[in-house]
Amino acid sequence: MITRIFGVATIFLAALVVHQYRTIEALKRTVDATAARSAADVRDHMIEEVAARSQDVQGAMAWLNDFYQSQDGLQRAHGICEANGRPDYVALSAWVFDVYLRHRLQGDSDEQSRQAVEALIKQSGEWRGKHPS
Predict the structure, then answer these.
(1) How far is CA 99 from CA 65, 78, 90, 118, 123, in A?
(2) 46: which of 13, 17, 29, 72 lies 20 to 30 Å off by Cα?
(3) What's the pTM value of the predicted model, to 2 decimals?
(4) Domain range holding 5?
(5) CA dihedral 37, 41, 44, 46 (to 10 degrees)
(6) Each residue of 44-94: pLDDT tens digit?
């Protein structure tokens, strides 16, 4: 009789283990699928956010050009362009996309984002060379 009880209990526990294993595997697949959908949703959201900031980015580039030319800025006669007339792509990338756009996407206002760019430019060796104090 006890052997029969142990046998039934063993079969029951084995069935429970198999059921739990299948449940855990199904949950893992669900988590993986949800993570993939979430990553795609975040990517799509970021694409929309960046596209919505097109006017801001254009305005920031114009402002950056003016700041590069200004007496308070880098005092470059050609603004954000190099002497050969080509845009300074490194500066545009660094200041507009790495600093300005990052601040805008984090919720800072246009003015706050420009101030962040200006503050970092004023820490550069080029700016300090033109504004010795």
Answers:
(1) 15, 22, 12, 10, 14
(2) 29
(3) 0.68
(4) 1-41
(5) -130
(6) 888 888 788 889 999 999 999 999 999 999 999 999 998 888 999 999 999
